[in-house]
Specification:
Layout (H helix, E strand, L loop, with lengths): L16 E4 L2 E4 L5 E6 L6 E3 L2 E2 L6 E2 L3 E3 L2 E10 L3 H12 L12 E5 L7 E12 L2 H7 L1 E2 L1 E7 L4 E2 L3 E6 L24 E7 L8 E5 L2 E2 L2 E4 L7 E4 L2 E2 L4 E5 L6 E5 L7 E2 L4 E3 L7 E8 L9 E6 L2 E2 L4
Antiparallel strand pairs: 1-2, 1-9, 3-8, 4-7, 5-6, 8-11, 8-12, 9-10, 10-12, 13-27, 14-26, 15-25, 16-21, 16-26, 17-20, 18-19, 18-25, 19-24, 21-22, 22-23
Length: 305
């Protein structure tokens, strides 16, 4: 997952402001942002190949790379103590993570746009001029961060639905030919992706439930994903579609240690198309159940200028 969980509280920023690890940068802050590079379209990884015996190229696949983000900062504080405090807070965010892979959330606000976020790791931190720092207390750090994601994201969204139960019956106008099996009851989530690319969601089934299934009825063919098996109360299966091959991890109630259950996973993994998506949650339970499905996603965009 390349976007924050909804449990992460985003900062409140003004236009032209940034936040990383709780350190605010930009307009009205200790650190002004002189320039920000790397938030436009990332480099395209083209796989076109030259025609060896003809003009032109054979068409290959085009994908976006990760991105390098460079912030050039500026601050002028009157005392050594004030400058040292500002440096200490900033430098703490520039240290590589202990596990070598964990990304920090870089938040930023653009005029007329939603609050954006991207996961980053620090790659370089330097001063443009130490002479200015020692003589007139002007500091101009340059920080380089790398994001493995090609996108920046709008606010994360999560919706949870329960299978209504046999007695409730269908609760929406059926406009597609789909057999739900079991008791035939359906829980509906309407998820709107306001980004510019399909959103790769995370789906969490929570028991008690039998053979839970989530189906995107807005896509051709009604693709669905199913965990085949019974789940006890409080057990979770988390399906993450933001991987080369979607992962399915089972967590027993009260535990944060999961095991892969791909062997019990079936169906066709899907992404959330740009615009409206209607998701149907079903199970094979013959009686009403308290089992739920949570859909977590964030709208992705390749350019945030």
């Amino acid at each position: 997952m390349k976007f924050p969980d909804v449990s992460v509280t985003p900062p409140v920023l003004s236009n032209g402001q940034y936040s990383i690890g709780g350190v605010l940068l930009g307009s009205g802050q200790t650190w002004a942002v002189q320039s920000a590079d790397g938030l436009d379209l990332t480099k395209v990884r083209s796989q076109d190949t030259p025609r060896p015996l003809d003009d032109g190229e054979f068409v290959g696949l085009d994908y976006l790379s990760g991105r390098d983000i460079t912030l050039t900062l500026h601050s002028q504080l009157g005392t050594d103590a004030a400058m040292r405090a500002a440096f200490t807070a900033l430098q703490a965010q520039m240290i590589p993570p202990n596990d070598g892979t964990d990304e920090s959330w870089l938040w930023f606000q653009r005029a007329g746009a939603p609050l954006y976020v991207v996961g980053v790791r620090s790659r370089q931190y330097r001063l443009k001029s130490e002479m200015k720092l020692s003589s007139i207390k002007i500091a101009q750090p340059v920080i380089l961060m790398h994001a493995t994601s090609a996108y920046v994201y709008g606010p994360s969204q999560a919706q949870t639905v329960q299978v209504p139960g046999v007695a409730a019956g269908f609760r929406f106008n059926l406009s597609f030919n789909l057999s739900f099996g079991g008791g035939g009851s359906v829980g509906i989530i309407n998820a709107t992706n306001t980004g510019l690319k399909p959103a790769r969601g995370v789906y969490t089934f929570t028991g008690p439930i039998l053979d839970p299934t989530i189906t995107n009825t807005s896509l051709s063919g009604n693709p669905s994903m199913t965990y085949n098996g019974p789940m006890a109360a409080g057990d979770r299966v988390v399906i993450d579609t933001d991987t080369e091959a979607p992962s399915a991890i089972y967590y027993t109630a009260g535990s944060n240690v999961g095991v892969s259950v791909l062997q019990q996973f079936s169906g066709t993994p899907f992404w959330l198309q740009v615009g409206a998506n209607q998701l149907a949650f079903t199970s094979q339970d013959s009686a009403p159940t308290a089992g739920t499905c949570e859909v977590l996603f964030a709208p992705p965009t390749p350019i945030a200028l």
